[in-house]
Structures are given as structure tokens and as C-alpha cells.
Write a structure and sequence with these properties.
Radius of gyration: 12 Å
Helix content: 10-25%
Order of helices and strands: EEEEHEHEHEE
Strand content: 35-45%
Structural class: alpha+beta
């Protein structure tokens, strides 16, 4: 997986995607998404690192089966909140 951290004064945003998705354009019945390298392509990370960063995040953008599985395991995404582009899951997490 790739993980990229986007920081601002108030937020710690983590973008996570499965490696094979970088650069792909995905569509479903209602929307579409491009997995842009400029947003997602940061460091390669293992499951433990991704989960640790997701648990710290105030906001996260997560795409791909492995990435979403990490979000499920650390409890920040409910399966009912996931949308699919074909068989590719995507979720956005944020805290208020």
C-alpha cells in the first residue's frame, strides 16, 4: 500500500491506496474517481504502519481492498459507509 500524509494547522489527513490502483480512473453508477499519484503516492507502508497512521488521522481517504481492510481493523470505517467502484472499495473518514 501507499500512504501519504497531508498536514494542515488543524488536520492530519492520511491518503491510503492499494499499490495497483495508482493512476487508475474508476467509475460506478453515480460517480467517478481518479487515484491521483499526487494525492496518494507517498511512502510504501505495511499494514501495521497504515493502521497506526489511520488511528491518528483526523481525516482519511482510503481506496482499495487492503487499505479498507486496515480501516476496518482499526475501527475507523463501518462497512456500510463504503462505496464501490466495481470491486474496488473506497471510504472517507473524518472527525468532527
Amino acid at each position: 500500500m501507499y500512504v501519504k500524509i497531508h498536514r494542515s494547522e488543524k488536520h492530519f489527513m492520511v491518503a491510503v491506496c492499494d499499490r495497483e490502483l495508482v493512476g487508475r480512473h474508476l467509475k460506478n453508477e453515480t460517480c467517478e474517481i481518479t487515484v491521483n499519484a499526487s494525492f496518494y503516492l507517498g511512502e510504501e507502508a505495511d499494514e501495521e504502519t497504515v493502521m497506526s497512521l489511520l488511528c491518528e488521522a483526523t481525516t482519511a481517504n482510503i481506496i482499495g481492498k487492503k487499505a479498507i481492510d486496515c480501516a476496518f481493523k482499526c475501527g475507523i470505517v463501518d462497512p456500510s459507509a463504503v462505496i464501490y467502484f466495481g470491486d474496488v472499495p473506497h471510504a472517507i473518514y473524518f472527525t468532527l
